[in-house]
Model the fold of this input.
Amino acid sequence: MLSDRLRFRDIRRTSAFRLTIILGSLFLIGIILQLGLIYGLTARELTARSDRILRDQARQWLAVPAAALPARIVTDIGRGDRDLNYGALFGKDGSRIAGNIDHRVDIRSDHPIDAEAKGAPGPIRLLSMPTPAGETILVGRDISQIHDLRERILIILITSGGATAIGMALVAFALSAEPLRRVRNLQRSARDIASGRLDVRMPIAGRRDELDQFATTVNVMVDDVARLMDQVKGVTDAIAHDLRSPLTRVRAQLHRARQFPDAPRNVSDLLRQAEADLDLALDRFAALLRISEIEAGARRAAFAPTDLAALLGDVVALYEPLAEERGIALTLSVKAMPVLADRKLLFEAISNLVDNAIKFGRSRVSITVRQSGRELLLEVRDDGPGIPQEEREAVLRRFHRGAKAAGYPGTGLGLSIVAAILHLHGFELELVGGRPGLIARFRIAPAGVPARPR
Done:
């Protein structure tokens, strides 16, 4: 049975959740790619601008006479125009002639690189150019802003990605929870309909979406099924009701004919067999009308707290002579406890089960009641041939008799009456293999505890 509580594993399996995650992931990837492209183009443009400034400054220094170059380098560095914070002139032997770069960096000429300068707060962009005199000029520019931009964009990527992912999950949950609740309501209604409550209809939210269209279609189908079943039941009940009186009269005539003193013995035997067949037919008609009466729910007004122990004691007292006659030990194990039920109907249902158990049992039949959570489990167990697994649902239908019941008297309607009574009470009937025999088990709600909806 499905739980009413929505669990995450149920929500994440919904189509709405999966589609939201897929579309949200695509959106997130698009945002990341867009920010990455913006960062790449911005960093590239800033780097190219720095390189242009470095080359421009290097060309200006190369145009200065060799004797005046050291002083020019010192003056330009001190002035700090265009963020040119670093520069130096190195001789052929690698010694520094002027500037604030401590040692010469071996890099290719006219190929700027990012480097770390001693005493600098951050990385610098460094360009090396040779002079006509064989000396080397190094020009540097602070690029910490570009690195700060990279870090900021990385932080933006991480935070925006995380926030988008969390928001996407919340949106997916919100979009999936309500449809899943509606599906749960549809499933609950479907279980009620499957249990025989054809008055139940699928809930319609009024949104005219696919769930409402599905619920409307199912409701129309259930209306048609209920109408057809009512027609079939009406015909069956009418036949049973209309034929019972004439068949009763025919049986009475046969009985009187069998009483004639001059009737041949073979004719009397045939009349007796005909009476037995008519009795069987009348029993079946009576059972059909009884099922219809129970299924109509006309007996709900008689529901009241009922002492289950006393009721089972009456059942055992009724069937104990029959059990002794057949050599079967009939035992009862139950404590005094009240249940909410129609005493006569519940007595009839349990009596049918006990009668079947004695009919098919070999040496023992036991009736036990035990607690299971807030419910009671009543079990009628026998050690007979049992019912095969594949027939346990079928025997609850009208007129179906199991393959092992062919040699036993019966109408094939006893368990149908039991099922109808339990359905009226909201109880559940379960047939379980007893190894050997059969266990007829059903759940009973104690008085004060509402029965499960059927």
The mean pLDDT is 76.
